[in-house]
Amino acid sequence: MKSFFSAIIKLLAVLAVLGAVIYAVVAYWDKVMELVCKMKSLVSGRSDDDMEDMEFADWEE
Questions:
Q1: pLDDT-derived band at 52, boundaries 50, 70, 90
Q2: Pair 16, 22: CB distance under 8 Å
Q3: CA 2 and chain centroid, separation
Q4: From CA 33, how far away is CA 44, in angstroms rounded?
Q5: pLDDT score recorded for residue 45
Q6: pTM for this entry
């Protein structure tokens, strides 16, 4: 019986942590995406200005 309650407590703790992580991601989604974009530009070696120029390179005809 003791191990059953221990397992339930562990399950509730894991669910609480998972819920907190999901809440943080949803609450700070814009900052998370901003960080992802910065990391992508650092990895690719391009700045945000270069990315904007690349997106609309074929716009002027």
A1: low
A2: no
A3: 38
A4: 16
A5: 78
A6: 0.52
